[in-house]
Design brief:
With about 325 residues, this protein is α+β, with helices and mostly antiparallel strands. The protein is built from eight helices and five strands, in the order ααααααβαββαββ. The chain has a five-stranded mixed sheet with strand order 1-2-3-5-4, with helices on one face. Helix 1 runs antiparallel to helix 2. The protein is rod-shaped and about 135 Å long.
Length: about 325
């Protein structure tokens, strides 16, 4: 690899050592110093001093060229421990300048590839969810609807006792049909596609808590920056999972959902005053939320809230 000056590192080291050896040879050839067949102590001292000077000079000159590379390796080790990986500081000149720029370019390409792969994985997940939702609607939903019609026809011709039994079956079937439709709506949030994130979050809280005793507070900042479709979808899915957990397991009196902008990030927070998440809990729902956040370069925190309950906090780049 050539530096900005057109010389490789190996060429520089060879040139420095050659220069020092040539200088030492010239000093021995043209200086008045001589060495007897049986060297005197004074001559040995002169040779030792000369050798020391050459070693020190070699260390200074070679070290001056290699020290920036040592610093670069140390900086790369520190950068690897950050998430995401930080870019290396670029020196003003020299071989370390070229190497730092090359490493930063490589890191940028890797991150770009990872983001494209993550977005493709997210799109594949949503496509699979849409397919399952469609099958639930067209398959199970239509079958249950047909069963309801058959029960209705049988009820008209049945005796009173059988009609009462069929009425119970009909109610159970209708409840199953409603549950299937609810699952299909959760798998494919049409309101998000049709009306946007703000309306989708409002509809989600209404659907989950309109018939219960949990009081819902929403705080969505006006004028939020427009988010990419994948980021918007992740925010909705995390809110959906967090609110569903509160509705099913939280036993909360109050749940608060906020969405605002902090610097260059959009922050979603779901707080409840329920029983709280166990310390160190990492169930399927929490892992799924974390994986989704990672797909769009976001960060998720799940833990106990001050005063009791659970806090879910998602930070995604705007």
């Amino acid at each position: 690899m050539l530096s900005a000056h057109g010389f490789s590192l190996s060429s520089r080291v060879i040139a420095i050592n050659g220069l020092l050896f040539a200088l030492g040879t010239a000093l021995l050839a043209f200086s008045p110093a001589t060495v007897s067949s049986r060297p005197l102590w004074s001559e040995v001292i002169v040779l030792a001093v000369g050798l020391t000077v050459m070693i020190v000079a070699n260390g200074v000159l070679v070290g001056g060229n290699l020290r920036p590379l040592d610093r670069l390796v140390s900086q790369l080790d520190r950068a690897r421990s950050t998430e995401p990986i930080e870019r290396l500081p670029v020196p003003r000149s020299g071989i370390s300048h070229d190497l730092a720029e090359s490493v930063n370019d490589l890191l940028g390409r890797i991150e770009s590839g990872q983001r494209e792969s993550s977005l493709a994985a997210l799109a594949a997940q949503e496509a699979e969810r849409a397919r399952i939702a469609q099958e639930l609607h067209d398959g199970v939903g239509q079958s249950l609807t047909a069963v309801l019609l058959e029960i209705g026809a049988l009820t008209d011709d049945a005796d009173p006792e059988t009609a009462r039994a069929l009425a119970g079956v009909r109610e159970a079937t209708r409840a199953s049909l409603d549950e299937v439709r609810g699952v299909a709506r959760q798998l494919r949030p049409h309101v998000l596609e049709d009306l946007g994130l703000r309306s989708a979050l409002a509809a989600l809280t209404t659907e989950l808590f309109s018939h219960g005793a949990t009081h819902v507070r929403r705080g969505i900042m006006p004028g939020l920056p427009e988010l990419d479709d994948p980021v918007e979808l992740v925010v909705f899915r995390v809110a959906q999972e967090a609110l569903t957990n509160v509705a099913r397991h939280g036993r909360a009196r109050t749940v608060e959902l906020t969405l605002n902008q902090v610097g260059g990030d959009v922050v979603l927070t779901v707080d409840d005053d329920g029983i709280g998440i166990p310390t160190g809990a990492a169930g399927t729902g929490v892992r799924g939320m974390r994986e989704r956040a990672t797909l769009v370069g976001g960060h998720l925190e799940v833990g106990r809230r001050d005063g009791g309950g659970t806090r879910v906090r998602l930070v995604v780049p705007a």
